[in-house]
Amino acid sequence: MFEMFADLMRDRFASDVYLGFALAVMVLPMVALAYWYHANVSKTQGGRNLMADNENYRSSGRMGPSTGRNLTGAAGMVSKINSGHYGDNVRRLQYKTYWYVLYWIVANVIVFGALIWAVNYNQSRDAAAQKPISTQETSTPAPN
Prior knowledge:
Elements: H1 2-8, H2 12-41, H3 45-56, H4 65-83, H5 88-128
């Protein structure tokens, strides 16, 4: 099965489709998480307070002193969430978010790891067979 996947990744079209799938796995869940989180966090007063506190630490768009302030603010909000300052609903929402992100990271490691493995495996196989390394088989002969 693994060799079949590696062989499939030699085909340019198949590898492009898989890369598109991998990029979708990387981006779409985070877009969905952002919409879901913002839709649910504002349902309670504690969530609205959290969002108001978040506004106080928004970046000014420049690096430097504001970066440290933003990180300090984020760390403070995390400890307030964990202590229940914003309420149990916000804390549960945050813990669900942590699990969601953990699953997302695992999915990315698997999806991109398989792609990296296939490329390495194909390169090793090509080197062992004394063939030039290529990502696409060509049907036209090379010019003399």
